[in-house]
């Protein structure tokens, strides 16, 4: 068995361009928690600001994701690429949605409890294990590339003038996105917590900040609420979304 919970918050923004998927539930506001049995998916989408209809792109993306039934790596790649094409085609035919785009980050747990990670953009997946938080996904962004090249430091990534530039994501009508799909590195063990979040959280809280909150002896949903509150207190001017999954009971 697994326990899943999530929260999505528009923050100081006039509307929410984030969306959350937990099982078959797509959320654009509020909180949700529920036990889950495989197969299921949990994901975060973040509509690209500066483009049209980000809130539509993120919600549509997850509505399509929830209909996927085959979570094999090879099948997932094709399904997500098809979602990209559907979003791009929709925006080509609707002037108000022209070039709408969204990030996508999540996990799919199949009937054999294999956990596959999928990522496009700069939303993130972390794993909290034995008191340590580790980022599992790699940001598809310019500052990540500059950091890996050694051009900027980790601290400079947070304030760099180009920190909001990401590589092509789902729905981009000019370029094809790079979809990262892999079985989770290091596995998903009993007691592990997987945390998926939009950059409204990760841009304002460090790995240490998040790790310290994850160590609290509070409910998992309460810990997510604390993380969101902390990001807002630190001046977050973006939407914030976070979902968490813990594997807690071994089926006999």
Quick summary:
The chain is an alpha+beta fold. It contains seven helices and twelve strands. The mean pLDDT is 91.
Describe it.
The chain has seven helices and twelve strands. The protein is of the alpha+beta class and 252 residues long. The protein has one domain: PPM-type phosphatase domain (Phosphatase 2c, domain 1, 4-Layer Sandwich), CATH 3.60.40. The strands form two sheets. Strands 4-1-12-11-8-9 form a six-stranded antiparallel beta sheet. The chain has a six-stranded antiparallel beta sheet with strand order 3-2-5-6-7-10, covered by helices on one side. The protein is globular.
Portion of residues in beta strands equals 25-35%
How many domains would you count in the coordinates?
A: 1
User: What's the overall geometry?
Assistant: globular
The helical percent reads 25-40%
Instruction: Provide the residue-averaged pLDDT.
Output: 91
Considering the chains and any ligands shown, give keywords for the structure.
six-stranded antiparallel sheet; alpha+beta; 7 helices; Phosphatase 2c, domain 1; 252 residues
Write the topology of this structure.
Layout: E1 2-9, E2 18-22, E3 25-27, E4 30-36, E5 40-46, H1 54-65, H2 73-92, E6 104-109, E7 115-120, E8 124-129, E9 132-135, H3 142-149, H4 154-157, E10 180-183, E11 193-197, H5 199-202, H6 207-214, H7 220-233, E12 240-247
Antiparallel strand pairs: 1-4, 1-12, 2-3, 2-5, 5-6, 6-7, 7-10, 8-9, 8-11, 11-12
